Amino acid sequence: MIDIHHHLLWGLDDGATSVEISLAMARMAVDDGITHVVCTPHANGQYEYDPEGVAAQIAELQGLLDREKISLKLGRGCDFHLSFDNIELAQAEPARFSINGLGYLLVELPDYGLPTGLTEVFYQMQILGMTPILTHPERNRTLQTDRSKLMEWLRGGLLVQVTAGSVVGRMGKRAEKMAHELLANHWVHFLATDAHNTSSRPPLMREAFDVVAKKYGPDYAHLLCDSNPLAAFMGKPMPPQLEPLNLYAEFKDKTWWQRLAERFG
């Protein structure tokens, strides 16, 4: 399995606090069946994201993993917050924040509310060659109540990552319920751990993989945990996806000018 959202690097954000914890998280991930991890420190007003510094720390940690015979391949990414400065930087340097600099970009929403103008932001990212991946929408209280914006973004080509812990009930009942609604509709493209430590936010995917395989089919589980994340890690096109359900029924009844107004509204 490949984990594209993981706060493995020590001392850069609210994830691992020491190199010892980073190594413990890596061991736990490998024991769970994870082979690749994208290290994704926050890029927000609290934590400055320095891609060169992140790459250097990844190289250091990869060396330690190899020396300790922990069979885990690391990649570089970030937990991209939609601040004005971040958006400007990403538009000027599309490779700066994306996974391994190859185009797939993890985009995080606040827990409450939605920033204005997101539809246009996602559209501009795609024009510039980026593929935005919305992280854990099942944990956003606004989207839990109203799916309309998420449906609009999905129609426009946005990809979705759900937290593995949400699937198995570790992130609360509301997040669990929405995660399964999204999975049942095939609106999810990635599962990831969003790991921060070895206890409350552990780097575990296997249990969620097994739940998805049992409830929604093994092919879908492999897409979410293997094939799609590998494409993001390598910067390759996504493989064929399962047909999304209940995404266009409401949309097809609207006129073209209503759809255009919604897209840029």
Describe the structure.
With 265 residues, the protein is an alpha/beta fold. It has a single domain (2-263), classed as Metal-dependent hydrolases (TIM Barrel, Alpha-Beta Barrel), CATH 3.20.20. Helix content is 43%, strand content 14%. The strands form 2 sheets. Strands 3-5-6-7-8-9 form a 6-stranded parallel β-sheet. A 3-stranded parallel β-sheet has the order 1-2-4, sandwiched between helices. Helix 3 links the parallel strand 5 (79-81) and strand 6. The N and C termini lie far apart (38 Å).
Architecture blueprint of SSEs:
Layout: E1 2-6, H1 19-31, E2 36-39, E3 42-43, H2 51-67, E4 73-76, E5 79-81, H3 84-92, E6 104-108, H4 118-127, E7 131-135, H5 141-145, H6 148-155, E8 159-163, H7 164-167, H8 173-184, E9 190-192, H9 206-216, H10 218-234, H11 256-263
- In total, the number of domains comes to 1
The biggest beta sheet is recorded as: 6 strands, parallel
Q: What's the rounded overall pLDDT mean?
A: 94
Look at the helices and sheets and give the structural class: alpha/beta
> How many individual helices?
11
Proper CATH architecture: Alpha-Beta Barrel
CATH topology assignment: TIM Barrel
